[in-house]
Amino acid sequence: MRVEVRLYATLADHVSEAQAAIPFAVELPNGASTSDLIDRLRLPADEIHLVIIDGLVVHDRTTQLADGSRVALFPPVGGG
Fold this sequence. Notes:
Blueprint: E1 2-7, E2 24-27, H1 34-40, E3 50-53, E4 56-58, E5 70-74
Parallel strand pairs: 1-5
Antiparallel strand pairs: 1-2, 3-4, 3-5
């Protein structure tokens, strides 16, 4: 299956084909979870603070993805 991924801020630095906030496609096996996607992209799991799938915030990284899912991953945000 194919999902659309957007990585925000510093997360994009970990994936060579990614640019911050620009969508790119990732092929995954059927039944893959959010955690599988994070592993596939070799992202440091502890740097991911927010996961949004098809417009809904997801807190459980075992959530299964579907073909065509749109996934946005965000690191912790700070500011002043």
